[in-house]
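Appendix C reproduces, verbatim, an entry submitted by the partner laboratory led by Prof. M.T., so that reviewers can inspect both the input and the predicted structure.
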Amino acid sequence: MVKAAVFVGPNGSGKTNTLKAIKFLLDALFSENQVPSIEGINSCLFSPDQSLSLKYVFLIDKQEIKYSLSAGKEGEILKEELFLDDNVMLRRDQTTATTSLTDQKEFSKKELSPSLLLLRTIFFNTKFVRFPTLQKWFAFLSNSIYFNAAKASITAYSGVGMPFMKNYLENNDGVSKINDFLKSGKFGSHIDFASKEKVSKYVNLEVLGSDGDSQRKTVFFHRNDIDISLPLSLESQGNQTFVRFLPALLQVAEKPGMLLCDEFSSGLHPELETFLIDGFLNLAKGSQLFITSHSTSLLHSSLLRPDQIFITSISKEGTDIERMSSFHPRDSQNFEKMYLSGLFGGVPSYKSFLQKK
């Protein structure tokens, strides 16, 4: 198992779809909605078969969990299979299902929801009390977080019942944890979560809600060296992305799960990207980080191994994903230079207007 996986490649080569495949499972298992419809944005443009088939493999306590599902255009379940090591735990088609996870071994078509995973139903009814490996697997999945840096949107699957960042800062001693993380990296800034703040020696700011409530809190980003504090909404895009990403990073690092970050490079300086990835790798125990990025500066052996870097490219058959380790680069080589020279593929092909004719 790799602790981090970084996907790089040209625009439109399918990097986001690699994370969508994982998010699809999390949404289907934990969101309030049923299996997401695959019509439109989730449908395959490279095949006449408009069903969606996904396979997942997890290793929990040295036991292999294999789960696969197929869904139709409107989100109807066509197939489900669950294996624990080589043992069939659940098998379903459109008409029947069999399982060893419950006292009821067989389900008829009338007992199956056409757009609800049977695995989800069994979990919420039984919590897998007789299957500790599956319990730990679902805890791992529910601790996962999806963050889209470009859209500043976050989806936490643990069901906190309020906006994720607000919940993290108000509970869990979140402000202190973030500031400790920043201090450990000698970042030179800290955050406050308050309704009033001294912005500078000349200006005080009070946060008012739409109803005039002065108790509403917001995040302030404070630069230690120049003694200025600004509401996060007035900060640069990069600093907004950075601060909003920190609660997700720290929570997943603390509780085993997956942290999925799309468009990771949105406004972040390359050194800041390195700081965040390196921080996760040092803090996380049993968690995984999956990111898409256009920042080739991440491609160096002091941060990531070749088996943690995945190159995406697009062809007539769809997206191809190649692990950098399949090219057998040496740690002493410059991964970024090799990638940009085209040795691994997945480099956009453009002719610069600055090139001599």
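DSSP finds eight helices and 18 strands in the chain. Additional entries are available on request from the coordinating office.
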